[in-house]
Specification:
The protein is mostly helical. Helices cover about 45% and strands about 0% of the residues. The protein contains 2 helices and no strands.
């Protein structure tokens, strides 16, 4: 167990660090439009934004129910 703790675990930690360093540094070589951070939310097109379920608008159609 001492070999794992002294040699293998630090080697794995260093390899993970260098893999993350390479992944982050690769952004330098990307085109300018791809180097920007990803958007958090996708914009909703106007046609989809206009069509909403009446329940979400707080409307209650129970008064219009046919008995």
């Amino acid at each position: 167990m001492a070999i794992i703790r002294q040699y293998i675990a630090p080697l794995i930690a260093i390899l993970v660090f260098f893999a993350a360093l390479v992944a982050v540094s690769a952004r330098i070589f990307l085109p300018a439009d791809m180097a920007a951070p990803a958007p958090i939310e996708e914009a909703i097109p106007q046609k989809q934004a206009a069509v909403l379920n009446p329940i979400f608008l707080g409307l209650n159609y129970s008064a219009f129910r046919v008995r």
